[in-house]
Amino acid sequence: MVQCDRLAVDQTVAAPGSLADPGALGSGPAAESGPRPKLTVRGVLRWLRTMAGIVPFGVYMTLGLLLPMAAVAIGAFRDPNGGGFTLSNVKTATHGVYLHGFEQSIILSVLTSILPGIFGLLIAYAIFTAKRGTVLRQAVITASGVFANFGGVPLAFLFIATLGSSGLATRWLVDLGFDPYAHGFSLYNLGGVAVVYMYFQIPLMVLVILPALEGLRSAWREAAENLGARTWHYWRYVGGPVLFPSFLGCVLLLFGSALSAYATAEALTAGTIPLTSIQIGSFLNGNVIAGQENVGKALGLGMVVIIAAAMVIYVVLQRRAAKWLR
Amino acid sequence: MAAITGTTEATGTRGPRPSRKRVSLPVWRWVILLVAAVYFLIPLFAALRFAGIGAFRSVISEPGFTSSLGLSVRLAVVTTVITIALMLPTAVYVHLRLPRLRRLLEGITILPIVIPPVVLIVGVLQIAPGFLKSTPYLLALEYVILAMPFAYRAIDAGLRALDLKTVVEASNSLGAGWTTTLFRVVLPNLNTALLSAIVLTVALVLGEFTMASLALFETFPVWIVVNDQTSGQVSVAASLLALFVTWLFLLAITVIGTRRARRTGGGEVTLFTVARQQTRGES
């Protein structure tokens, strides 16, 4: 998965070359793709024929992703009783306990995207500089694949057995003279949940940042060293600027992943921390006050809006960074 | 970019480079890996101690174990088949005929990662027709969407490492038709990329909980949770077992894949990139 890498780096590289000569397959004029400036019947037909190849994909995405999301968005503005247009769902969803839920979700997601982002980058770099094809490298990468998909009650349990009030690590720490629970730590508050989230966020970061690291060519480092650059110079003027946009993209991805995490927090806290994803889940499970059936959809819409806002921040940051790092 | 570069050389591993950094780097590496190992292994160890060895023996005889695992495996197979059948032709087609749509396609295939599954399933349950809602294969259809970012990028990385256009042109000029080219030229070259796509899809399906539980189907991850209420130790043993088995499975696939790729001149198989053995120049 190269998305965070691609979001940024490709802009520079892909632009001129990839547009060249798309008509590699087949023969005859029909092989040329792209809409023509002249709008003739033949031109339109040709364009339609070229586009036909991506129709199955487009239909699948529409039915499986766009239509359900549209249903959520429309439902957010619909009165569950009469079916007419209403703003009351959105109003409910942005007040009181739900507003608090959004706040807590955002705090948790920011925390568990930036910290694992940095630590995951360090691990990925450690793996990247290890020799290719070694068992260590492949063991870490595959383990990342597994842990990035780990979550829910099993994960919650792992940590209850470790850092719960009578967990293994807690007892070790108490034996060493430091009781984490006497110093304000709890596995069941926001900080504790953040510690648990990192268990799948760090591996996810390792997975998504590795392709970007592989884009750092050893030749660049050698060239920099030949020009007399120290490690710091290399990272400040070469490695950093190349890597930073990818890093931001990956952190954005982690933010989305943390925001949508559902099972782990629910299993761990049983709803004591209000998080938006858990609130949506409880709507689906039927814990609904009459007349508020569509508030869950408004909450869902709210999550999408938050992610869209995060993407805007990402684009702005990336532009700024491009200036700073130049 | 990662796939195109394909430089096998990692910075500072081979060749004599007289530099101060060579000394300090390994220390950093081991410190970081040690911290990571502590964080990731201690919870596993704690859970292992809690479950005890006996629980592992009784996992298999637990009611619901075989049926839920069977369902998860079936869903994994169906999801993988649909994903490959949908994404492979699309990616190949876009690479060859519509290269200017590549960035658009990348943008679209990211969407499932940033759209929370818990929101998606709300919409799906609302619009899905009744006959789909009653079958667990509804999940497979949606898992295809969830797996798309991973699968598309794996295939895309493979295609870019391949220099598809030249290969297809060569095949065509030798008189091969479209199907022959796809099945006898493109597919064999994409072995490793497809392998990573499949591995990632399977790992995702075997671990997905949110959608399955909210749509009320008892897949393996859901069963672990349901069963937890009756016997906690067995549940912990089951989830540990699932973790280890999936990991060994992935490790085996990448190691074998890399060996095979080496023999045929390819690079290492990682989960997202298929690096080539030779550098194709700084394009």
Summarize the structure.
The complex is a heterodimer of chains A (326) and B (283). Chain A is mainly alpha-helical.
Order of helices and strands of chain A: HHHHHHHHHHHHHH
The portion of residues assigned to helices of chain B is over 70%
> Which percent band covers the strand fraction of chain B?
under 5%
**In the CATH scheme, what's the topology name of the largest domain in chain A?**
MetI-like fold
- The secondary-structure class of chain B comes to mainly alpha
CATH class of the largest domain in chain A: Mainly Alpha
- Supply the number of helical segments of chain B: 13
For the termini of chain B, the CA-CA separation is 10 Å
Enumerate how many helices of chain A there are, as a single number: 14
pLDDT below 50 for ≥5 consecutive residues: which ranges of chain A? 5-33
Mean pLDDT of chain B: 76
- Show the largest interface: A-B, 114 and 119 residues
The CATH architecture category of the largest domain in chain A equals Orthogonal Bundle
**Terminus-to-terminus distance of chain A:** 27 Å
Oligomer: heterodimer
User: What's the level 1 CATH class of chain B?
Assistant: Mainly Alpha
CATH H-level name of the largest domain in chain A... which superfamily?
A: MetI-like
**Count of the separate structural domains of chain A:** 2
Main sheet: strands, sense, barrel of chain A: none
Give the secondary structure arrangement, pairings included.
The complex is a heterodimer of chains A (326) and B (283).
Chain A: H1 3-17, H2 41-51, H3 55-75, H4 88-93, H5 96-129, H6 135-147, H7 152-163, H8 168-175, H9 190-214, H10 218-226, H11 231-260, H12 263-269, H13 276-284, H14 295-324
Helix pairs in contact in A: 1-9, 1-11, 3-14, 5-9, 5-11, 6-9, 7-12, 9-11, 10-11, 11-14, 13-14
Chain B: H1 2-5, H2 21-59, H3 65-97, H4 102-114, H5 117-127, H6 130-133, H7 137-162, H8 164-173, H9 178-189, H10 191-207, H11 210-214, H12 220-228, H13 232-263, E1 266-269, E2 274-276
Antiparallel strand pairs in B: 1-2
Helix pairs in contact in B: 2-13, 3-7, 3-10, 3-12, 4-7, 7-10, 8-9, 10-13, 12-13
